[in-house]
TrEMBL record:
SUPFAM superfamilies: (Trans)glycosidases (SSF51445). InterPro entries: CHAP_dom (IPR007921), GH (IPR017853), Glyco_hydro_25 (IPR002053), Glyco_hydro_fam25_subgr (IPR018077). Residues 1-60 form the Peptidase C51 domain. PROSITE patterns: CHAP, GLYCOSYL_HYDROL_F25_2. Belongs to the glycosyl hydrolase 25 family. Pfam families: Glyco_hydro_25 (PF01183). Its EC number is 3.2.1.17. GO terms for molecular function: lysozyme activity. It comes from Streptococcus pyogenes serotype M12 (strain MGAS9429). Gene3D superfamilies: Glycosidases, SH3 Domains. One of its GO terms (biological process) is cell wall macromolecule catabolic process. It is an enzyme of class 3 (hydrolase). Keywords: Glycosidase, Hydrolase. This is Lysozyme.
Amino acid sequence: MQAGDVAIFMVVAGVTPYSHVAIFDSDAGSGYGWFLGQNQGGANGAYNLVKIPYSTTYPTAFRPKVFKNAVTVIGNIGLNKGDYFIDVSAYQQADLTATCQQAGTTKTIIKVSESLAWLSDRHQQQANTSDPIGYYHFGRFGGDSNLAQREADLFLSNLPTKKVSYLVIDYEDSASADKEANTNAVIAFMDKIANAGYKPVYYSYKPFTLNNIDYQQIIAKYPNSIWIAGYPDYEVRTEPLWEFFPSMDGVRWWQFTSVGVAGGLDKNIVLLADDSSKVDIPKIDKPQSQLTFNQKLDTNTKLDNSNVPYYEATLRTDYYVESKPNASSADKEFIKAGTRVRVYEKVNGWSRINASQSDQWVEDKYLSNATQV
């Protein structure tokens, strides 16, 4: 929504006791907006400015003609700890108005380019219909620093016109076998971004980063520049489950789900405000499981990711492990029949084995002779 839009509210007990019409003022963050109207928040007959969740509005809103073809250019929005934002690519619609309303935030990071061969056909309109905080490039340069700089030049020369502070290198594929070369190439890309006057950010997921990048070198040069992805599952998540935070040094933002809305949408939370230098991760004690040992072994049982194994079992047959549940990985690691493995997580009939952050998953039906550790 943009300032001046007219919204119609449903009756929701404890939130909007009266059906009413109100004018949208501004986004309040965390799925809420500021609305000016009458009969709001239980104040019968009064006109006031009230913070109300977008979820209580009907799906359509009226935009006055004077605003209909106008573009509200904001850009470069300051980020506070706890703010949400979404990241989008050409898979999403060019007009993000409805997407942002559904996600409960207008803040976005938008994909601009990939490798040297692809440019988005909708990044400018996506920027026009949201409040971008940054833009991103999907890198395919592996460990080639010269290619990384060329990709950065392509990225920088094709940015939308809305001003932002952050530019992101998305590095989650095409890594070379040389970890040091990969790290140098990523830093070369980030150097180009920094020299152009932007704040560079590195995006990936934790296992890929630990396997292919010396990320301590990145945060030594660009402190608190990590945007990390890590999901508890693939159910719709509108808020993070903190016990699944992929803890690392230097994390600024966390992509906590790829299903922020039904049908799929990456949603993120800000851990470090723009004017702060300290990341504060909530400490949440994971409740102790009350399941019996036999219940833990049941194929349908879900076990949260744990640093301590739930049990040990034997592979009944030679097995090529997958990188995640229900995957069909190209490079599969072979484990011989009879090997004893430890289970650290269970999801939909699949078990994560050998370490809490491993990329090794086995179907439960191939495990037998389980014993407590």
